[in-house]
UniProtKB/TrEMBL annotation, chains A, B:
<protein>
    <recommendedName>
        <fullName>GST N-terminal domain-containing protein</fullName>
    </recommendedName>
</protein>
<dbReference type="InterPro" id="IPR036282">
    <property type="entry name" value="Glutathione-S-Trfase_C_sf"/>
</dbReference>
<feature type="domain" description="GST N-terminal">
    <location>
        <begin position="1"/>
        <end position="77"/>
    </location>
</feature>
<dbReference type="InterPro" id="IPR040079">
    <property type="entry name" value="Glutathione_S-Trfase"/>
</dbReference>
<dbReference type="GO" id="GO:0005737">
    <property type="term" value="C:cytoplasm"/>
</dbReference>
<dbReference type="InterPro" id="IPR004045">
    <property type="entry name" value="Glutathione_S-Trfase_N"/>
</dbReference>
<dbReference type="Pfam" id="PF13410">
    <property type="entry name" value="GST_C_2"/>
</dbReference>
<dbReference type="InterPro" id="IPR036249">
    <property type="entry name" value="Thioredoxin-like_sf"/>
</dbReference>
<dbReference type="Pfam" id="PF13409">
    <property type="entry name" value="GST_N_2"/>
</dbReference>
<dbReference type="InterPro" id="IPR050983">
    <property type="entry name" value="GST_Omega/HSP26"/>
</dbReference>
Length: 177, 177
C-alpha cells in the first residue's frame, strides 16, 4: 500500500524490509513500539534506515500513513481536493479495512468463513461506479493503493489454498500488513 | 462524535435522531443503504431532514464524517495543519477504533472479555502526553471528538452492568454508533 502511494506521488524514500520472523531489536525500540509494519520515519537527520534517529517523526498504521502521504503531496492526486470526493475515497478505505482486511485475517486465523470475504467483495463491488477505472473518482487515489495489495494477497491465498492450513500453522506476525 | 465536531467547528446543521429500533424506511433508501448512523447529507436544496434530496451528498461512517468536517472547516482546528500532527491525530483515532471500539462491542456481544477493553485503555493511555489537555497536540481535534463518546458510554456500561446481560439480549442495532 505504502510503496504504491509513494510511487504515485514520486516521493523520494528509502525502503527497509523488516524481516517479520526475525525483527531487528531497534525496530520496536526506535520506530514502532507495537512492532508492526508498515511504519515510516520522516524528517530528522540523514541516517541509514537501520539506524533511525530520535529526531525523525515515526508514523505507523497503513491508513494513517496513506493519509500522511496525501498530506505531504497535495498535488499528487492521492486525495482529491473536493471534500465530498475525499470522503468517498475515505469511505472506500474504511470499507476495505472493515469488509476485506478484517474478514481476510479472520479467515486466515480460522475464526471466520470464506463467505465473509465474498460478502466484503460484494460490498466493495457496490461502491464501484460503472465505467470508472479507479476505486473512487476519476484518478488513482489512496483508495486504490489501499485495496490492490489486499486483492493481490487474496488471489495468492485462493491459488495456494493457504487458508486451508490448520489454525495456528502460521505465526501471528503474518497478520502484519 | 459528530455532534461534538459540529459544535467545535460552529457548523450550522440540522440534527435528525433516527430511532434505531424503528428506522424510517427512507433512511436506508435515501441516506445510508447500510442503515447505520451516523450519516450526514451535505449540499443540495434546503429540505426537511426526513425528506432527503437525491441532490445532496450522503456520507457515512463516523471517522469518515469527522475527516469530512475537518476538511469543510480547515480553520476549526479539528485537524492541525502540520502533516505530522495530523498523522498523530489519525493514529489516535485509529487506535480508538481498534483498541476501544472493537473490544467494547466484542464485550457487549459477549465474544470477548472485559480485559481487552482495559488493555485498549492502557494502549490509549500510552499515547497521551504528560500535562496535555487534549488527545493529540495542544487543542481540541477530531481525536477528542472520536474518543469521548466511547469513554462516556463505557462509564455507563460499567455503572449499569450492561455487559453482564446475556448474549443476544440486545438487538444488533445497538452496535451502531
Amino acid at each position: 500500500q505504502i510503496e504504491l502511494a509513494l510511487a504515485e506521488a514520486n516521493a523520494p524514500h528509502v525502503t527497509y524490509e523488516v524481516d517479520l520472523f526475525n525483527k531487528p531489536e531497534w525496530f520496536a525500540s526506535k520506530v514502532n513500539p507495537v512492532g508492526k509494519v508498515p511504519a515510516v520515519t520522516y524528517g530528522g537527520p540523514n541516517v541509514d534506515p537501520d539506524d533511525p534517529s530520535p529526531l525523525s517523526a515515526k508514523i505507523a498504521e497503513s491508513n494513517v500513513i496513506l493519509e500522511f502521504l496525501a498530506d505531504l503531496y497535495p498535488d499528487s492526486g492521492l486525495l482529491p481536493k473536493d471534500p465530498v470526493l475525499r470522503a468517498k475515497v475515505r469511505f472506500f478505505i474504511d470499507a476495505t479495512t472493515k469488509h476485506i482486511e478484517g474478514p481476510f485475517f479472520a479467515f486466515i486465523r480460522g475464526s471466520e468463513s470464506y463467505d465473509n470475504i465474498l460478502k466484503g467483495i460484494e460490498f466493495i463491488q457496490e461502491l464501484l461506479e460503472e465505467g470508472r477505472d479507479f476505486a473512487a473518482g476519476d484518478h488513482y487515489t489512496i483508495a486504490d493503493a489501499c485495496i490492490s495489495p489486499h486483492l493481490a494477497r487474496l488471489k495468492i491465498v485462493i491459488e495456494t489454498d493457504l487458508g486451508r492450513a490448520p489454525a495456528g500453522a502460521f505465526p501471528r506476525e503474518v497478520e502484519s500488513d
